[in-house]
Design a protein that fits this description.
This protein folds into three domains: 2-244, no CATH class; 253-329, Alpha-Beta Plaits, CATH 3.30.70.1380; 335-402, Ubiquitin-like (UB roll) (Roll), CATH 3.10.20. The chain contains eleven helices and 20 strands. It is of the alpha+beta class.
């Protein structure tokens, strides 16, 4: 499953929470993560909301006021590091606040460690960030969410009042966060603050690509309502979830290749990861020997035809090559389904491939295994073995249920 955020009306922490709940994430999942912070009681409530005739969900964060609290980046980091959070939730929260610290540091011309969070360090902002991290982690574990993208982010225009006085909109921190992440920004439909620093940081921490709605078969849409109901446009953040649409047979798939002998080999893991984030279906290396006996690698990248331009650009920007070969290939993919097994209380996703309706291959998600191993303080190989056994037992049980005479 893939997801896409429509940020035509901007983004904020409470809008992201509302979109997740409206898309099916239980509110209790978000509340449990917020409770794990161990701060004063912060309550989350969800209620129906309507903006320009479109129904959605408004999530309210009820936190005690703490006007004199000035949390430094080190304070926030320590709080998140010691809290009883699931590792995927902790990672999103640390990533988001780290981006905020760097952006605020650039605005105030101080080192990130000296940044004092005011608005974004308050309890409600902590709840927004941790709750959103928990909601997306739930979608990954329970619904097989693989990746998230977003459209251009409407940031608004005019001025807003902050702790230090009037702030131009888009806020400098918002522009800094979006610039670092490479996310496109626009003024948007209304002359107000449409994107908050918290909303920008969460988008930057969650999405891997930006662009229009990707080809998909839509399964669910969630609408997160903002606090204001302004007249210019519906104040909603949309989350569209679905299965990626296969490329049309006429388009097929392509393999991009390049022979490279002058790239620092330490960069290859980052290159392969960047290509996958750009939309490649797969990316791998083959060792070769080039002219004059020079050792080198051939970079191979498999992608759908409609992703070629984006992936090609990533090849050129992430490597030292000055040319790329391309050729079309036929690809036969098995039907697949995602499920989840439990390893000592930790969820691990399992991918099962089917041929003619019969399971032929089962594999556990390594990232989930690694996260579970860290949470359980066990070797990765131990958790991998337990997860694989659990997946095989679940598959056998499912087969016995469907065919009790075997």
């Amino acid at each position: 499953m893939i997801g896409w955020f429509d940020c035509a009306a901007g983004a904020s922490g409470d809008m992201l929470l509302g979109a997740l709940v409206d898309a099916g994430v239980p509110l209790a999942v978000l509340q449990d993560a917020v409770d794990a912070l161990g701060t004063e009681r912060i309550g989350l409530t969800a209620e129906p909301a309507e903006r320009h005739g479109i129904g959605g969900t408004r999530v309210r964060v009820d936190a005690p006021e703490a006007p004199d609290v000035r949390r430094r980046w080190a304070d926030v980091r320590a709080l998140l590091t010691t809290a009883r959070l699931a590792e995927p939730v902790r990672a999103v929260a640390l990533d988001a606040f780290g981006r905020l610290a760097r952006a605020e540091a650039a605005v105030h011309r101080v080192p990130p460690e000296e940044v004092h969070f005011h608005e974004v360090g308050a309890l409600d902002a902590l709840a927004d960030i941790v709750g959103t991290g928990a909601g997306t982690a739930w979608l990954r574990a329970e619904r097989g969410l693989d990746r998230l993208s977003c459209g251009p982010v409407s940031a608004g225009s005019g001025y807003a009042r902050g702790r230090h006085g009037m702030i131009p909109v888009p806020a400098p921190a918002v522009l800094g966060v979006l610039a670092e992440a490479g996310l496109p920004v626009q003024a948007g439909p209304a002359p107000y603050e449409l994107c908050t620093p918290t909303g920008a940081a969460l988008l930057a921490a969650l999405v891997s690509t930006a662009g229009p709605l990707p080809p998909m078969t839509v399964a669910r849409t969630g609408h997160g309502a903002g606090a204001r109901d302004f007249p210019e446009a519906p104040n909603l953040l949309r989350l569209v979830l679905g299965e990626p649409a296969s490329a049309a047979p006429a388009d097929g798939a392509l393999v991009l290749e390049a022979n490279i002998d002058d790239l620092d080999p330490r960069l290859w893991p980052a290159v392969l990861a960047a290509l996958l984030c750009a939309g490649a279906a797969d990316a791998w290396l083959s060792p070769i020997t080039m002219k004059k006996g020079r050792p080198a690698h051939t970079l191979h990248v498999l992608c759908a035809a409609d992703r070629t331009e984006t992936v090609r650009r990533a090849v050129f920007t992430e490597t030292s090559t000055i040319g790329v070969r391309e050729h079309r290939v036929a690809k036969h993919a098995l039907d697949r389904a995602m499920s989840v097994v439990d390893v000592d209380g930790q969820p691990v996703r399992v991918k099962t491939a089917y041929l003619g309706g019969e399971p032929v291959n089962t594999s556990v998600e390594y990232e989930d295994v690694a996260a579970a191993a860290a949470a359980l303080r066990l070797p990765v190989k131990t958790v991998l073995a337990r997860a694989t056994t659990a997946a095989q037992l679940a598959q056998t049980a499912a087969k016995n249920v469907s065919d009790p005479l075997t």
